[in-house]
């Protein structure tokens, strides 16, 4: 019993090395995407000993589910850092409703 328990650590490390190398070979051949099995194993093994790792993994899972929205209510804009300009499109209805614009167009 003691021998089995003493050899379980090195056996797990050897298994992890074998699985990791198999995944590298498979990834080079087929351009596989996704989370590798070896990375999942290491993350879960670390989460057993560190509670903060478990919270990090759960946060990562919850963020992956969320929908990404680019502007979230902001108007579309084009920012050109090289020229130092920002272009914000304005519709004609907004321009005609602006009192400052009406005063400028009446005096011209």
UniProtKB/TrEMBL annotation:
Q: Which species expresses this protein natively? A: Kibdelosporangium philippinense
Q: Keywords in UniProt for this one?
A: Membrane, Transmembrane, Transmembrane helix
Q: What is this protein called?
A: DUF6191 domain-containing protein
Q: Which residues cross the membrane?
A: 6-25
Q: Which InterPro entries match?
A: DUF6191 (IPR045684)
Domain of life from the UniProt record: Bacteria
């Amino acid at each position: 019993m003691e021998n089995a328990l003493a050899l379980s650590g090195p056996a797990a490390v050897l298994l992890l090395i074998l699985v990791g190398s198999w995944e590298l070979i498979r990834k080079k051949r087929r351009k596989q995407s996704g989370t590798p099995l070896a990375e999942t194993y290491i993350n879960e093994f670390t989460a057993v000993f560190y509670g903060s790792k478990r919270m990090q993994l759960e946060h990562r899972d919850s963020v992956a589910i969320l929908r990404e929205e680019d502007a979230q209510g902001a108007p579309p804009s084009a920012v050109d850092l090289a020229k130092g300009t920002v272009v914000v499109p304005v519709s004609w209805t907004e321009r005609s409703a602006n009192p400052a614009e009406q005063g400028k167009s009446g005096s011209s």
